[in-house]
Structure formats: structure tokens, C-alpha cells
Design brief:
28% of the residues lie in helices and 22% in strands. It is α/β, with parallel strands linked by helices. It has 2 domains: 2-107 and 349-463, 3-Layer(aba) Sandwich (Aminopeptidase); 125-254 and 289-334, Glucose Oxidase, domain 1. The strands form 3 sheets. Strands 1, 2, 4, 10, 11, 12 and 13 form a 7-stranded mixed sheet that branches. The longest helix has 28 residues, at 17-44. It binds 2-acetamido-2-deoxy-beta-D-glucopyranose (4 copies). InterPro entries: PA_dom_sf (IPR046450), PA_domain (IPR003137), Peptidase_M28 (IPR007484), Peptidase_M28B (IPR039373).
Length: 464
């Protein structure tokens, strides 16, 4: 414990000359004693015990291996339930640094991309006017974009289906937007809804579209939501500049996260863990949609939305984005239809949480430090900047432990699986360990996306 200097300088004693001499001798012998004590202590224990735990950690982190771990984690896509090798590797690293490590497996209901199609049809002749490739570009400077190293564009838990219908623009697809559409006299029933990303969680757009009778949904990224960092404002697109690449597609979960009655985690086991021999499963549709949904780039939605120009109601001012060549008419245009086909593989599949524990003097007080390990593709920022930091935290805590420090509280590192699909790993663990979490976990530090290109979030660790 550091001594407050102010209280020392304010300390004064009136004393006689003799007393002062005695005090000086005492002072020197005390100092000598202290010096010998500290020296003996120094050589009898490991040297870093003389340092504060913070200093041990900071010294250890002077050699920064985060880049190395990031390379390891991002070498291949780490889609939920696919990269068992990274779960095993994470466990080995935790063990290497002196934590007792384990893998906690859950058997979850999950979807994987398989096939998809999107065609613009002439309503009269059924002739295909445009077929969206539904693919992102391979960028020569970015091997993570090569097709043999990526995952098809899709949304987790988007329902399978093959629908053909007229389509309308529904702005962000919020509850209010659908109310507004009613006021404008637009009937969404039986149509495909095209919503731009933003404002609310994407799965809720699907829910509200479905509640309003839509039979399919397309979600696209409108440059109007890129905070002015757009080619129209002179910014070059990735990889030449910071603007969104017009062919890029936002993957994500279509679960109804945050929706009334919806629960995160495995949608077939709400409130209890997907673990054990005889898991009871219920209908997942309280938390997932029944209509097919595809995500799409703004380059590929352009020719589709341009067909609505001048058709149907005009968008309220706030609904107007920045897609060139589209006047944001709501539609529909009876002359054209969309055929939207989504076919994903749904099955029960294992996911793997990895834990590493440094036991403390108190086992009844647990500090959780965690991050997820699954990504939509390679996940350099989200989540693996955090995965790399988690391994660095393990390394530093390992050094502290090896130096002879005792942790007051138990520190548990957690590398969750399935976060992107709907917080699967953490939710299932929360359901499994609910009693322990409620009674023992006193703090949780989440390292997800520790670093982004635009935002560097400094995380402060309080370890004792
Ligand atoms: C267009 O396709 C629909 C649905 O498959 C079909 O009912 C209709 O007869 C087709 N129209 C023409 C002109 O082929
Ligand atoms: C992946 O694709 C890229 C670009 O098309 C190619 O250069 C590379 O050799 C491929 N890698 C593998 C492992 O096939
Ligand atoms: C989807 O439906 C369309 C028209 O109803 C049909 O032409 C097409 O073959 C179907 N696609 C698949 C993959 O079944
Ligand atoms: C702490 C706890 O309750 N763990 C349980 C997690 O689920 C498995 C399988 O049902 C049980 O065996 C554990 O006891």
C-alpha cells in the first residue's frame, strides 16, 4: 500500500536534543534493518514480488504478442461451430499460462449458408431482368476477401423459402416505419420488404416485416448511413480509402434479439442449457422468423430499387438515403417482381466455450473476463482483436501467478462461441451456471472488438 505523503509531512513531534540523537540512531538502525529485510526478501522470493502486480503485468506486456495471436485466430473463417481447432488452441494457451482450462460444449440449433438466389423478374413474361450475384468482390490486396477464404453472404437463422412477389421500400423497417406505411396507404401484405440497415437490430426488421404480412425481406447497407464517408463526398472505397466498398455485404443474425417474448441463445431451448443427453427442444419461432431474408450490397440492390422510381407513395424526407439512381419511391411497381430464394442447412451442432481459471484465495468471488471466438468471416476486429487481448491477459496473469502472487479473487477467462448468431455460448453457459453466476460473479469485463480501425477503445484492467 502506498503511504500518503501529505500525512507524513504533516507529522511533527517536539523533542529534546538527546531524544533527537536517540531518534537518529533508531532511524538509521531501522533503515539498516529494513534494507537487510528487503534484500533478504528480495533474494528469498522471486524478484518481481518486489513489484506491484500492475508493474509485473505491464512489464510482461512490454513484449506484445497480440499480433501473433491475431494472425492465428484470423487465418481462416471462424463461423460459429466450425473452428474447433481454435477452441483447442485457446485451451492450450490458457493451460500454457498456468490456468486450469476446460471446454464446455453445447448442442445448439443453428443455420449454415448453402444456397441463395435473387432475381428481378418481368411480371408479365417471368423473364429475368437482373440476377443479383449475392457475392462480395475478391480484393487482391485483401486475402481475407478471397472466396476460398470466406463465407457466403447470409443471415443466421434466416428462414428457408422461395418466394416471388412485388416489393416495397420500408426505410429501416422499424415498428414506426410500418405504421407510417399504413398511413401512406402502402400494403406490405404478400410483398417482399426491402429495408436498409440501421436504427434497430436487423432481426427486428424481419419480425416487424413478418408481423405486417411481408413474405420475404432484403436488407441492404445504404451509403446514406455511412456518416458522410461516401464516394459522393470524395472518399475512396475500401481498399483504396475509408468508404464502404459498394459490393460489401453485412452478415449477421436474424434472431429477434430484443423483441418482445424473444430470448437470446439457442432458440429451441429458451431458459435452459442445450446440454445433456435428452434435450427438450421447442419451436424456435418465438425468437426467429418464418419468412426468407437475404442481405445484399448497395451495388446489387441499386437496379432493383431503381425500378421503383416514380412508383407508389413518395418517401417521407427522413426515409431518403443516398443511393444514386434511386428516388426513394416506396413502390410497388406492378411491372416487376422479385424471386427470393434462401436455403440454409439447419441442424443441431456443437459449439465450444473455452474457460481458463486462475483460482483465488476466495473461490466465492469470481471476476469474468471474456470475449467471443466466432466470427462471420475471419473477424480481425470483431471479435479477434479481443481474442488476441484475452490471450495476452492470460499470459500476463500467468506471469503474475508464476511470480508467486496470490489472487484474492478467482479470475475466469472465457472464450465464448456463437455470439454472432444470437449470444449462444454465453447464454447457454448463463443458463447452465445461473446459480453460480448470480452468487459468485462480481464483475464481467467484455473484450469484444478491443480494437477497431476508427475507434481505439482503451480497456483498463483492475486485477486485484
Ligand atoms: C410466371 O410464373 C408464375 C409462377 O411460377 C406462373 O404462375 C405464371 O404462369 C408464369 N407466367 C408466364 C407468362 O409464364
Ligand atoms: C485462394 O484464392 C486466391 C485468389 O483467387 C488464390 O491466389 C489462392 O491461391 C487460393 N488459395 C487456396 C488455398 O486455394
Ligand atoms: C423457386 O421458385 C421459382 C418460381 O416459383 C422457380 O422457378 C425456381 O426453380 C425455384 N427455385 C428453387 C431452387 O427451387
Ligand atoms: C453448473 C451446472 O449446473 N452445470 C451443469 C451444466 O449442464 C450439464 C449437463 O446438463 C450438467 O451436467 C452440469 O451439472
Amino acid at each position: 500500500m502506498a503511504i500518503d505523503e501529505k500525512s507524513l509531512s504533516g507529522y511533527s513531534v517536539a523533542r529534546t536534543n538527546r531524544a533527537s540523537k536517540a531518534f537518529t540512531i533508531l532511524k538509521y538502525s531501522l533503515c539498516t534493518y529494513l534494507a537487510i529485510y528487503v534484500y533478504l526478501n528480495f533474494i528469498s522470493t522471486r524478484d518481481s514480488l518486489s513489484l506491484s502486480p500492475e508493474q509485473v503485468i505491464l512489464n510482461e506486456l512490454e513484449s506484445n504478442h497480440a499480433g501473433e495471436w491475431l494472425q492465428k485466430y484470423t487465418d481462416k473463417p471462424s463461423l460459429t461451430g466450425t473452428a474447433k481447432n481454435l477452441a483447442d488452441w485457446t485451451k492450450l494457451k490458457f493451460e500454457e499460462y498456468g490456468a486450469s482450462a476446460s471446454i464446455d460444449t453445447y448442442e445448439v440449433y443453428l443455420s449454415f449458408p448453402h444456397e441463395h438466389d435473387l432475381s428481378l423478374l418481368d411480371s408479365k413474361t417471368n423473364e429475368t431482368l437482373y440476377k443479383a450475384p449475392l457475392e462480395e468482390d475478391e480484393l487482391s490486396v485483401d486475402p481475407a476477401s478471397f472466396k476460398n477464404n470466406t463465407v457466403p453472404t447470409f443471415l443466421g437463422y434466416a428462414a428457408n423459402g422461395n418466394v416471388t412477389a412485388e416489393y416495397v421500400y420500408v426505410n429501416y423497417g422499424t415498428k414506426n416505419d410500418f405504421e407510417e406505411l399504413k398511413k401512406l396507404g402502402v400494403d406490405v401484405n404478400g410483398k417482399i420488404a426491402i429495408a436498409r440497415y440501421g436504427a434497430i437490430f436487423r432481426g427486428l426488421k424481419v419480425k416487424f416485416a413478418q408481423d405486417n404480412g411481408a413474405i420475404g425481406v432484403l436488407l441492404y447497407s445504404d451509403p446514406g448511413d455511412d456518416h458522410g464517408i461516401t464516394p459522393a463526398n470524395g472518399y475512396k472505397q475500401y481498399p483504396e480509402g475509408p468508404a464502404r466498398n459498394d459490393g460489401s455485404v453485412q452478415r449477421g443474425s436474424a434472431q429477434f434479439l430484443g423483441g418482445l417474448g424473444a430470448t437470446p441463445g439457442d432458440p429451441t431451448t429458451p431458459g435452459y442449457p442445450s446440454q445433456g443427453d435428452d434435450i427438450k427442444r421447442s419451436d424456435p419461432h418465438q425468437s426467429t422468423g418464418k419468412i426468407p431474408v437475404l442481405p445484399i450490397s448497395y451495388r446489387e440492390i441499386k437496379p432493383i430499387l431503381a425500378k421503383l422510381n416514380g412508383k407508389g407513395a413518395k418517401s417521407p424526407k427522413k426515409w431518403v438515403g443516398e443511393l444514386e439512381g434511386y428516388d426513394y419511391s416506396i413502390g410497388p411497381n406492378p411491372k416487376v417482381q422479385l424471386n427470393l430464394y434462401n436455403n440454409q442447412i439447419y441442424n443441431i451442432t456443437p459449439i465450444w466455450n473455452v474457460y481458463g481459471e486462475f483460482e483465488g484465495e476466495s473461490k466465492d468471488e469470481v471476476i469474468l473476463i471474456g470475449n467471443h471466438r466466432d466470427a462471420w468471416v475471419t473477424g480481425a476486429s470483431d471479435p479477434h482483436s479481443g481474442s488476441a487481448v484475452l490471450i495476452e491477459v492470460a499470459r500476463a496473469l500467468g506471469k503474475l501467478k508464476a511470480s508467486g502472487y496470490k489472487f484474492k479473487r478467482t479470475i475466469r477467462l472465457a472464450s465464448w462461441d456463437g455470439e454472432e448468431q444470437g449470444l449462444l455460448g454465453l447464454t447457454e453457459a448463463g443458463e447452465n451456471f445461473s446459480k453460480e453466476f448470480q452468487s459468485k460473479v462480481i464483475a464481467y469485463l467484455n473484450l469484444d472488438s478491443s480494437l477497431q480501425i476508427c475507434y481505439i477503445q482503451r480497456k483498463v484492467l483492475v486485477l486485484y
